[in-house]
Amino acid sequence: MDAASAKKEIEELLQQVNTQFTDVNEENIGAFVDKVESLHKATVMLEYAFSAVSEQTAQEEKVSEPVTTSEPEAASEPHAEQVVEAPTPTVETVQPEKQDSVPDIVLSINDKFLFTQELFNGDASAYENAVAEINSKITLEESSQLLENLQQKFNWSDESEAIKTLQLKIKNRFT
After folding, report:
1. Which distant-in-sequence residues (6+ apart) come within 8 Å of 116 by Cβ?
2. pTM beyond 0.70, yes or no
3. Radius of gyration of the chain from its Cα atoms, rounded to whole angstroms
4. What are 9-28's pLDDT values in tens digits?
5. Which value, to the nearest 10 degrees, does the dihedral of the CA atoms of residues 108, 104, 52, 37 take?
6. CB 162 within 8 A of CB 136
7. HEC letters along the chain
């Protein structure tokens, strides 16, 4: 997606959010969250497009600056300055290296509320940190180990429905 189409998509999504969701409630929260996630993705893509263009422009400007040297031309003019144009190399856009990564854990607004209240004793910051840590793990084993550490830290019961749900969500992340 190029910058212009990403910008247009962001504007359309903002317009939809402004017109359709003047009153966010339980009935339309899912659609609202979907629109906000779409808006976030489009914004990230636009930011990436702008940074790639900025980097390319900066490289082109850096390369096209004339280079001056102070070399003697001949014996009659020992300190004459000579302007040499640097050759302009072709600049290729380099795509970021794709890693074998796993998608982030998929959690609904209800999951967030449940986990924050039941597992993190109402501490939204602890919940956000835990989700970020879970998303940073690239294997099921690493995620399971992290979950065990969190279970000990927050003294979670193995019988808790919330912990069972979180375990399932983590497992689904790797399938």
Report:
1. 122, 123, 124, 127
2. no
3. 27
4. 777 777 776 777 666 666 76
5. -10
6. no
7. CCHHHHHHHHHHHHHHHHHHCCCCCCCCHHHHHHHHHHHHHHHHHHHHHHHHHHHHHHHHHHHHCCEEEECCCECCECCCEEEECCCCCCCCCCCCCCCCCCCCCCCCHHHHHHHHHHHCCCCHHHHHHHHHHHHHCCCHHHHHHHHHHHHHHHCCCCCCHHHHHHHHHHHHHCC
